[in-house]
């Protein structure tokens, strides 16, 4: 049964089923850190007496139970209304106190991992600027408590200090709500057309790691695998080119299949619910997640789309907020497989308009020369001076590398553009997956332009935009136009601070 609405102004604990959950978490940590010893135990179990096994398991289980109970009773959370802070007490023996200002709370995520479903409880994570990881995690809450706490921490509210009902502490603003879903078919299309190169490389890395770990494990149990890597290499090279290409093709197809299944499982039943102040993302098959993104805190919107996705009319949209790193995928609020119409509506809901750009800057062709020297000439020179025979014997690989690198450099140069208007700036870049990062001029922290001494004659330079969600740089642009753009951006930043 769900608990009644809670004010959270008094210290309280998690759901009592959290003791069991903490115990299971502790077991998982033990298995994760000691899995090698567990495998070795099963390999050499004949050398261990049964009573020693029973005693060791009993001691470990008892310690884990005591740790779970202490974690549960020492963990308390509440809202300090006077200081407008969310306070967490936690620890096993030595307790610690974490205080977070309410205005610094950027995002609150509710999720229900697979194990939590057995106990009908939820996990709540609170995120603040300047941290790559979640500041606070509450692992065992009822659904009602999790939802109510999220409302307390995020929604605009009116606190009624002189009310007769102590539970009625806020009146949320009534907002017009609209919602839509990303279909499973759209997720499948996205999974097939996205990250397949990454999936292929991950698959290869996994196979290499698996063989390495197996080899190390066999050595620990005094079993010599007798793997002759030179022989394996010669046997592999003995295959014909079609056979090798066939193996690579099968690996790529397997990578695409794995990525498609992973995408559907991770983003299954993706639902977007929008109101006037924010929108929530809810998705997941085994690990259900629910996150809220405040529209006013979105710093950068990144639209990613490749040629195949463009033909299918789908793309991947990320919303970067204060203190977020775009490379940290787990901390980014994103919508996969969204169609172009819904994408325009979603972006217009955040920016209050659809950005339309009238001005565009393209890099000078000299950028191709610079990148060619950086990625082609310099690496080949290093190989030549370090191991000249290697470059001579495998000249065909060097030629292939030059052709492929030049092709990628030309494609990257063609896609690199800077768009801007009175309110927005957008940086377009990429080779296959094209990223368009759009941000508001008034939300910029600062803008810098630079020019090397050899660029003065050609009047070229670079510009860097600094936002609360990272910095973005583009090079080899007309320096005079960059100066005008920088002056305008600085003017807009200063005037927005004075309003």
UniProtKB/TrEMBL annotation:
Pfam families, alphabetized: bPH_2
Superkingdom in the source lineage: Bacteria
Segments traversing the membrane: 20-44, 50-70, 187-211, 236-258, 367-386, 392-413
Domain YdbS-like PH stretches: 72-153, 267-314, 415-488
Keywords: Membrane, Transmembrane, Transmembrane helix
The protein, known as: Putative membrane protein
Annotated source species: Chryseobacterium arachidis
Record lineage: Bacteria, Pseudomonadati, Bacteroidota, Flavobacteriia, Flavobacteriales
